[in-house]
Give the backbone structure.
Amino acid sequence: MDSSPSLPLRDLAWTEPDVARLGDASPCMPLSDLPCGVQGVVAGVLLGGSLGDRLVELGFTRDASIRVLRRAPFGGPLQVQIREFILSLRREQARSILVLAQRGTPVPDA
């Protein structure tokens, strides 16, 4: 039996056919590591409790299109576009959201 602690994974039920359907996608990474301007899709939310519930209510669900628009300096919040909404997240919250980055997404000039 696995003795590792279980994490409250939400909407993280990717299978090989799901990944193949996404095309040429890289492995899961935290949203905080997604480069600015690169399109991705949400794979899951690792936060539990009311904050995890609220993120799901805001649209952080499996297959939701997401992009990091801006990063505040010195470890500040990220501005992200999820579906048609634009919102800001703390970096520690963004580390708890897993995404699949789409390769070949054009990165805008800085």
Q: What stands out?
A: The chain has one domain: 16-102. DSSP finds three helices and six strands in the chain. Confidence is low (pLDDT under 50) at residues 1-9, 11-17.
